[in-house]
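USER: My hope is that you can spare some time for a protein that puzzles me. I am handing you a single protein, as its sequence and its fold in token form. Walk me, if you will, through where the backbone shape changes along the chain. The protein I mean follows directly.
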Amino acid sequence: MSLDGITSLVSRLATVVAVVFVGLAGLELLANLFNQTILRQIYTPGRLLEFAAILILFVIAVLLRQLRNEVRASRK
């Protein structure tokens, strides 16, 4: 498997995990409104959103790198 294939796979996995974190943060926030908890205060909804933002930032960096490589290849 090439490096581009591995980065593409990791990028897709990071996107899925980030979406799960955002959904879980929303559910936890909704549960907290009713004085309940899903995660038993292990992570707050804000902390889950921070993790999701970090993952999405990584995905954006990988996509920009791939775009740069494609532009460089098309110029040759």
